[in-house]
Specification:
It is a single chain. This protein is mainly alpha-helical. The chain folds into two domains: 150 residues, Orthogonal Bundle (Helix Hairpins), CATH 1.10.287; 59 residues, no CATH class. Helix content is 77%, strand content 5%. It contains four helices and four strands. The radius of gyration is 40 Å and the shape is rod-shaped.
């Protein structure tokens, strides 16, 4: 294979590898972000539960105040019973007393209902806090694993950067400029193999003459359809 073509194939593979490092890092970070999102959702649920409990307690307090007012009212009605002078006033007081007693019954039932809700919410809160603790422990473990994985990826990337840098030191400037022009639009597929007599960039079949020149690998050959640099991979026994 032509030395310049050989170098172009190497450079293209280095660039392709480098392009893959960032997605690998993002993929590792995504593993952690999934756990963080779950933890944040649990925190939101905890805050909502606290707010619900506070609201229930506030309603209970209002009912207790109302209950105290109703009991005071009953005491007042009881006192007035001794002061009434006619049957009409007695009936009016009895009606007022019945209404007050009904309201007391309702207030007591409401307090009982609110206590049940508060107890259920307190239990729910404990479960959420336990889940959050569990999730935060998982986050710590995942964070260590992700940090280690990212360190390994960065080490691997540094090696590829070093290899690429060493290759560029002996690279022909005209060939490099030519490659970079194609890479502007072709990205990591600037240099592609020919498979089944087709360009592996645009997947168009190339003619016999061009294919013959690619096989010889004596010159740098461009795809007549898309302009990418073509090469023929060395076929192994396995292939």
């Amino acid at each position: 294979m032509n030395k310049y073509l050989q170098d172009l194939v190497k450079l293209s593979k280095y660039d392709s590898s480098i392009s893959m490092f960032e997605p690998k890092i993002e993929n590792e970070k995504a593993k952690l972000s999934t756990f963080i999102e779950v933890a944040e959702a649990i925190k939101t649920s905890i805050n909502d539960t606290y707010a619900h409990i506070d609201d229930v307690k506030s309603k209970r307090t209002k009912n207790n105040i109302h209950l105290a007012e109703l009991k005071t009212k009953l005491d007042d009605i009881s006192r007035k019973h001794n002061e009434v002078t006619n049957e009409k006033e007695v009936k009016a007081l009895q009606l007022e007393e019945e209404i007050a007693k009904e309201q007391i019954t309702f207030a007591n039932e409401e307090i009982e209902r609110l206590d049940e809700i508060a107890a259920a919410k307190e239990e729910e809160l404990k479960e959420l806090q336990a889940k959050l603790t569990e999730e935060e422990e998982s986050i710590k473990e995942i964070q260590i694993a992700v940090d280690n994985a990212i360190d390994e990826i960065n080490q691997e990337r540094n090696v590829v950067y070093q290899q690429r840098s060493e290759l560029l030191e002996k690279f022909d400037n005209k060939i490099l400029t030519f490659y970079e022009k194609i890479r502007r639009w072709a990205k990591d597929s600037a240099v592609v193999p020919v498979v089944d007599q087709a360009c592996y960039g645009c997947f168009m079949k190339i003619n016999d003459k061009t294919y013959s020149e690619v096989i010889k690998s004596e010159e740098i050959i461009n795809c007549p359809h898309c302009g990418r640099i073509l090469y023929k991979e060395v076929e192994t026994e396995e292939a």
